[in-house]
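Dear U.,

Please find below the material for section 3 of the report. The protein was modelled together with pyridoxal-5'-phosphate; I have listed the sequence and SMILES used, followed by the predicted complex structure.
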Amino acid sequence: MLAVTGNRVASAVARLGAENAFQVLARARALEAQGRRVVHMEIGEPDFDTPKHIKRAAVEALDAGDTHYLPSAGLGELRAGVAEYAGRFRHIEPGYSAENVVITPGAKPAIWNTLCALLDPGDEFVYFDPAYPAYASAASYLQAKTVAIPLREERDWRMDLGELERRVSDRTKLLVINSPHNPTGGVLQAEDLERIAALAQRHDFLVLADEIYSRNFYLDREYLSIAALPGMRERTIVVDGFSKAYAMTGWRLGYALMPKALADVVTLFNNNTFSCVAGFVQRAGIAALQGPDEPVRAMNATFRERRDRIVAGLNRIAGLSCTLPEGAFYAFPNVSRITQDDRALATFLLEHAGVACTSGSAFGKAGGSYLRFSYAASLDDIDWALDAIANALPAFKG
Ligand SMILES: Cc1ncc(COP(=O)(O)O)c(C=O)c1O
């Protein structure tokens, strides 16, 4: 029998990244097991329970025996429901149909499988820094040439479009955008989307628009998707899912919308990896889309209140400054007046203040002067964490 040891692992593994939040979570749980109080602000998941009507649909599906293999692209009824919802929510004309939809176990595999479907070694892949780590991890694994454009705090975390214009070219195959943005909470404005769309058409590249936080949105205007702009429906892959909007992170249910020819290839990758998403989970997704929208709005209103509380509180702590996030559920304070080592500070806050957060550099080099706090925590926990940070910080030697 072959011994499975570290040195037999494929060299390509070295190109994979990882979500640091899961590693922080493991340490936080270990501290809790020792009896310590920890406020969890490391992981990006709503702390609300999944709405009842959604859970009921899954239970009913289980009772009805919905426990077997299904088509790799997803249940026709869910694909049609997603096409209708996604097109209506984003005002996309002509609308999507079921054949444009690929159902995946969470948005993350939709990103991985879409990148697998599109990127050859050497293809130019443009993304933003800081960013959700899954994009660069998949692109690097696939040996694409990755180009990172720094996002700037002084531009409310939107990219410098002049810089983007200089860095994309006819060699660019795919650009990723993510609005509202993890980890900064920044939201792209209409003029950003229009200029990106013009560049995509001039240089003939595709855009993967990660819109997983499209329902975690605090501006008093409608959500804007690049896919709704003229000429963009056919060159945009919209990634979305149920995790953040419906508090369904653990269910693993996401999707992507794209031209049919590409959807067929992404489905082939589904076929080769997870085969299909569990039927009772897909039934829950149908219930989420068909049921009342009120729970989504109520969760968003609560997030907004928490956002205001944590941002005001962070700005009151000496040495920290924090912009107001316009979407998602992360506060991303600047810590450069305290330290040049964001990782050490994140570790210190967990070990000495009982506050679990993520270092900004876990999202890329440009995140190096920041920490990310997920405000998927109650107002009481937020207040407790703010006090704990303020009390612990003077002892930090950074
Ligand atoms: C920007 C972004 N995209 C995608 C995902 C993946 O979400 P899912 O739970 O649906 O896989 C996350 C999760 O944190 C995210 O922050």
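For the text of the report, you could mention the following: The CA atoms of residues 341 and 398 lie 7 Å apart.

Regards,
Y.
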